[in-house]
Design goal:
Layout lengths: L2 H14 L6 H19 L15 H8 L20 E2 L8 E2 L6 H129 L1
Antiparallel strand pairs: 1-2
Organism: Poecilia latipinna
Protein name: Si:dkeyp-38g8.5
Keywords: Coiled coil
Length: 232
């Protein structure tokens, strides 16, 4: 017999001390034991387990590693519902009756098995959920860090825009001041031009008056000379 039958025999022996089991129930129980052993032996990444907390781990580990070969008794299924057990001392064969018509007992055995294994399964499930939550928390932290960096970049860009806005306001004020200065200079220049034109007009009028007086004087002198010549 291989080493896995040793595990089956031990678990069946434990169960038949209280109630009979069907072959299907015994096989199902052994499959559950193997599944539980594999979960503890090779847990998912990031999940911490304590294999020694499961009472069958050491036995299953010995069986799976081949350390129990040739040491398991033979199991024999009987066709009736009678329970028989015989054992010889010092390596004799042990016969165990595995009943085929024990549905109520089968259900009770399943319940007992579930009650025994559920706490450990719950612990493993909690460990997996905790690992999943840790990964999600780490992902959330990374996303938050990325958002913080993007927010810092946006704040720096906003500060640059504010400085540029202030510079534009200063340039606008400077242009406004220059425009006012130019307007004042233009008005002053126009006043000077008007005054110059007026001064030139007055000077021209004065020249005309002086020329007219000179002509009149010359004409009077000529008239007097003519009169004097006639009298001579």
């Amino acid at each position: 017999m291989d080493s896995t039958q040793q595990i089956l025999e031990n678990n069946v022996q434990e169960s038949v001390t209280k109630l009979k089991m069907t072959h299907r129930q015994a096989s199902k129980k052994f499959e559950n034991l193997k599944k539980r052993y594999k979960e503890l032996k090779n847990p998912p990444p990031g999940v911490k387990v304590v294999p020694q907390s499961w009472p069958f781990f050491s036995l299953m580990d010995d069986a799976m590693e081949g350390r129990l070969q040739s040491s398991a008794p033979i199991l024999k299924a009987l066709p009736n519902n009678k329970f028989a057990e015989s054992e010889e001392v010092n390596g004799s064969i042990q016969d165990v009756d595995i009943s085929t018509n024990c549905e109520p007992q089968e259900r009770k055995s399943e319940q007992l098995l579930m009650q025994r294994e559920n706490p450990y399964q719950d612990v493993a499930a909690l460990d997996r959920e905790r690992a999943l939550l840790d990964r999600e928390r780490a992902a959330t932290e990374r996303e938050r860090a990325v958002m913080e960096r993007e927010r810092a970049v946006m704040e720096r860009e906003r500060a640059v825009m504010e400085r540029e806005k202030l510079m534009l306001e200063k340039d606008r004020d400077a242009l406004r001041s220059e425009r006012l200065t130019l307007e004042k200079e233009k008005a002053k220049w126009l006043r000077l031009m008007v005054q110059k034109e007026r001064t030139e007009e007055v000077t021209e009028d004065d020249s005309k008056v002086m020329n007219s007086d000179a002509v009149d004087k010359r004409e009077r002198v000529l008239f007097l000379l003519e009169k004097l010549a006639e009298n001579i």
